[in-house]
Amino acid sequence: MSLQGKRILLGVTGGIAAYKACELLRLLVKAGADVEVMMTKAAAQFVGPLTFETLS
After folding, report:
1. Distance of alpha carbon 2 from alpha carbon 17, whole angstroms
2. How far is CA 42 from CA 12, 19, 34, 38, 55, in A?
3. Which of 14, 19, 31, 36 could bond to 3 as cystine, CB 3.0-4.6 Å?
C-alpha cells in the first residue's frame, strides 16, 4: 500500500502504546507518508522526542 503524498498526524499519549507508535511511524514513513508527530508530556516519559524526530 502506497501512502505517497499523504500527510498524517500521529498523536502519541503516555502509556506502553508509545513504544508501538515508533514502529507505526517507521512503517508509515516506509510507505511514503509525510508524518508529523505530536506527543504529550506523559508520552515523552516513555519515548524521547528525539526518537520520533529521527524516525520521521
Report:
1. 24
2. 9, 13, 24, 12, 19
3. 31
Identify whether the C-beta of residue 38 lies closer than 8 Å to the C-beta of residue 18: no
Q: Which pLDDT tens digits describe the chain residue by residue (56 residues)?
A: 789 999 999 999 988 889 999 999 999 999 999 999 999 999 999 998 899 988 88
In b/e form, how buried is each residue of 6-36, taking b as 16+ CB within 10 angstroms? eebebebeeeeebeebbeebeebeeeebebe
Total H helices, total E strands in the chain = 3, 2
Cα–Cα distance between 41 and 13 in angstroms, integer? 8
CA–CA distance, 25 with 19 (Å, rounded to integer): 10
| Whole-number pLDDT of residue 28 | 95
